[in-house]
Specification:
The protein has 66 residues and is mainly alpha-helical. It contains two helices and no strands. The longest helix has 41 residues.
Length: 66
Amino acid sequence: MAKQSSMFDLDSSSFAAQLREDERAQTMAEYAVILTVITASIFVALALLGTNVASHITDIAKLVLP
């Protein structure tokens, strides 16, 4: 009868070696951090510039529409 392999039958040294060599999770985490920083920067820029841009659009609308 063939032995079925399961995730609990892993040798601890081969499992640790596999984790060291597999950098996909680390890369995904780095991408997530970069995406979070970019998104936060966009929200901060919109919050700081939003009222200023809105007032300029209002000024232009007042010039165009008498």
